[in-house]
Design brief:
The chain has helices spanning about 15-20, 35-40, 50, 65-80, 95-105, 120-125, 135-145, 160-185, 190-200, 205-210, 235-245, 250-265, 280; strands at about 5, 25-30, 45, 55-60, 85, 110, 115, 125-130, 150-155. The protein is of the alpha/beta class. The longest helix has 29 residues, at about 160-185.
Length: about 290
């Protein structure tokens, strides 16, 4: 079994780290919140240097590119030569390529490996893992990644991040359109449950619809029926859509969707699930 450092024990990172621990790996966790480290049930560290000093594999699952950059700077100073670094955060492909150059220059294997599937996928180890980096590094990482879901080698450094941003562009645009459709149906007096039944059996069906229908009281486990408790926060989707737009020469549909999410942020909905974008259309005077 391997010595594994896992940095970032949030909604996604904690269940992933637990899967590695349960598989028998010697996992050492690190997070800014002591409660999250205690919840891991394994060894913990009080610094990046302590976490990665003797590690064979180092994972990060962090909320923004700035955090990734800070942690990688410390990893570059402390991780053993020939260690494997896997970043499962979502960020700019350019940053992934920059970090790969930095760490490979110090003898590490490096992968960008953002995931899709949300907290439920992290708990169930059914994530789709989009991996960028060398094929040799991917083959080395694959036994670890298979404990977390389905890893797919997309291409060179940064390719995993590009694929993830494309996915989130589609998801974000889909939800913005779904929110508008639900607001129209609501104004026209169409029953929320009936609309859900019609959409899920018609060409408007999607995984976005089936996991986060934005009208409350139809599907008990969806965020809208739980005060929009976030499976994926609207603030994070704004970050990802903005990153996707940076890659595009021209993307008017995604730009329009981003405008809707920013309206929702301005209305104070950023910490909620991104399906709360519906509220800026259904109750424009309140949201």
């Amino acid at each position: 079994m391997a010595r594994v450092a896992f940095i970032g024990l949030g909604t996604m990172g904690l269940p992933m780290a637990r899967h590695l621990l349960r598989a028998g790996h010697d996992v050492i966790g690190l997070d800014l919140e002591p409660e999250r480290m205690a919840a891991l049930g394994g060894r913990t560290a009080d610094s990046v240097a302590a976490a990665v000093g003797e590690t064979e594999v180092a994972f990060t699952s962090l909320p923004d590119p700035e955090a990734v950059s800070r942690v990688v700077h410390e990893i570059a100073q402390s991780a053993p030569e020939a260690a494997l670094f896997i970043d499962m955060s979502t960020g700019p492909p350019a940053l992934a390529r920059e970090l790969a150059r930095k760490l490979t220059g110090r003898g590490l294997d490096v992968l960008d490996a953002p995931v899709s599937g949300g907290p439920a996928g992290a708990v169930a180890a059914s994530l789709t893992i989009m991996v960028g980096g060398s094929l040799a590094a991917f083959e080395r990482a694959e036994p670890f990644l298979r404990l977390l879901g389905r890893p797919v080698h997309v291409g060179a450094a940064g390719a995993g991040q590009t694929a993830k941003l494309c996915n989130n562009l589609v998801a974000g645009v889909t939800m913005a359109a779904l929110g508008e459709a639900c607001a129209i149906a609501e104004r026209e007096g169409i029953d929320a449950a009936l609309l859900y039944e019609l959409l899920t059996t018609s060409t408007g069906d999607s995984r976005v619809l089936r996991t986060r229908y934005p009208r409350a009281g139809v599907v008990d486990v969806h965020p809208s029926s739980n005060e929009y408790a976030p499976l994926f926060a609207l603030d994070l989707l704004v970050k990802d859509l903005a990153l996707a737009l940076e890659l595009a020469d021209d993307s008017p549909v995604a730009a329009a969707a981003l405008g809707e999410y920013r309206r929702a942020q301005a209305a104070g909905l950023g910490p909620l699930d991104y399906s709360a974008v519906y509220l800026v259309r259904s109750r424009p005077t309140d949201a």
